[in-house]
Design goal:
The complex is a heterodimer of chains A (about 120) and B (about 110).
Chain A lengths: L3 E4 L2 E4 L5 E7 L4 E9 L5 E8 L5 E2 L8 E7 L2 E6 L8 E9 L8 E2 L3 E5 L1
Chain B lengths: L3 E3 L4 E4 L4 E7 L6 E7 L6 E7 L2 E5 L2 E6 L4 E6 L8 E9 L4 E4 L3 E6 L1
Parallel strand pairs in B: 2-11
Antiparallel strand pairs in B: 1-3, 3-8, 4-5, 4-9, 6-7, 7-8, 9-10, 9-11
The chains are: A mainly beta (about 120), B mainly beta (about 110).
């Protein structure tokens, strides 16, 4: 149980285009989902927290107009990187908190590797 | 100063060795302490969690938390090449309502 999927697993796009990443909880309902970014050999940096049906809360320094997050249902959250630039190239990982679970438990997706050329 | 400090390594050990991974933290509000394992180009997977101080054992893995010293450890006994990964400590407080990760320690177990 407690499986989180991400799609796509990797994507290459041209500078200036937008990319959408999906995060799905497959066997549980997630009231809260988190989006992280991870650069090579670095830890996970929390970008934003999204609660189903409400606006996402962004961490300091994360541009909300650039990283659009939508959490339209209890099993799906999307991250759209708008007008992507090479510096946005990174490993994006989502996690989800089970509505029935403990607040400290997060289940992570396999990640999406974004390369902007 | 970072809330959670973790030596990034890399750490290289022979197969069968006992591995000790550690993190220190500064926020006394942390109540839950987790260890995640992350293989290259994959998402983290939860290995163990501990609430407050104490020890917890699961097979070859033992997690220790010393809240008085703000120090947590993960021990891996009889390490295997399949244990080669990056190990991330993470901490949670109800007040913050989020996980705070250490930098991760890259471990290689050589056959």
């Amino acid at each position: 149980g407690a499986v989180v999927s991400q799609h796509p697993s990797w994507v290459i796009c041209k500078s200036g285009t937008s990319v959408k990443i999906e995060c799905r909880s497959l066997d549980f309902q997630a009231t809260t989902m988190f989006w992280y970014r991870q650069f090579p050999k670095q830890s996970l940096m929390l970008m934003a927290t999204s609660n189903e049906g409400s606006k996402a809360t962004y961490e300091q320094g994360v541009e909300k107009d650039k990283f659009l997050i939508n959490h339209a249902s209890l099993t799906l959250s999307t991250l759209t990187v708008t007008s992507a630039h090479p510096e946005d190239s990174s490993f994006y990982i989502c996690s989800a908190r089970d509505r029935e679970g403990s607040p400290y438990e997060q289940y992570f997706g396999p990640g999406t590797r974004l390369t902007v050329t | 100063q970072k809330e959670v400090e973790q030596d990034p390594g890399p750490l290289s050990v022979p197969e069968g060795a006992i591995v000790s991974l550690n993190c220190t933290y500064s926020n006394s509000a942390f109540q839950y302490f987790m260890w995640y394992r992350q293989y290259s180009r994959k998402g983290p997977e939860l290995l163990m969690y501990t609430y407050s101080s104490g020890n917890k054992e699961d097979g070859r893995f033992t997690a220790q938390v010393d809240k008085s010293s703000k120090y947590i450890s993960l021990f891996i006994r009889d390490s295997q090449p399949s244990d080669s990964a990056t190990y991330l400590c993470a901490m949670y407080s109800r007040r913050g309502s989020r996980l705070t990760f250490g930098e991760g320690t890259q471990l290689t177990v050589n056959p």
